[in-house]
Write a structure and sequence with these properties.
alpha+beta; five-stranded mixed beta sheet; 5 helices
């Protein structure tokens, strides 16, 4: 493929990317919507790094959470923890899929603590989706995200 053809191909792919999002399955679309709504309510006055997260639970419901910062930094809470708490409060027991919405063009993977929190309610095949402001999605499974998870077994 010549350079001009390659550049046209890349430009065409970029132009059509917005159309491709409609090929996402319904549950992923719902997770994106819920995480983006939660992200708008994040309390991040210190970092201005607003994160939203949404979970598809085993009961078919979607639960969302946002990050909450605190002047005493270790006391803040990540978006994933908020979504997990909402799921447990409503009777959900397992995470089928979780999406984390980044506030910028870079993916926002769960921190180490959240990886372990997600693992508590996930299985090895649970999907973790990282969504950025360019509408890119990176998907990994639990065993890839946290290969040596702490377990009591």
């Amino acid at each position: 493929m010549g350079l001009v053809k390659h550049q046209l191909f890349v430009a065409n792919c970029a132009a059509n990317f917005k159309k491709w999002k409609y090929l996402l399955d319904n549950s992923t679309q719902k997770l994106i919507q819920a995480a983006k709504l939660a992200q708008q309510n994040a309390y991040a006055p210190y970092s201005n790094f607003q994160v939203g997260s949404a979970i598809l639970a085993d009961n078919g419901k979607v639960y969302a959470g946002c990050n909450i910062e605190n002047a005493a930094y270790p006391l803040g809470q990540c978006a994933e923890a908020g979504a997990i708490a909402a799921m447990i409060l409503d009777g959900g027991t397992k995470i089928e899929k979780i999406l984390i919405a980044s506030p910028n063009e870079k993916r926002c993977p769960p921190c180490g603590g959240c990886r372990q929190k997600i693992k508590e309610f996930a299985n090895q095949n649970t999907q973790i989706l990282m969504y950025d402001t360019q509408e890119n999605i990176t998907t990994v499974d639990m065993k890839t995200l946290l290969p040596f998870a702490f377990e009591l077994d």
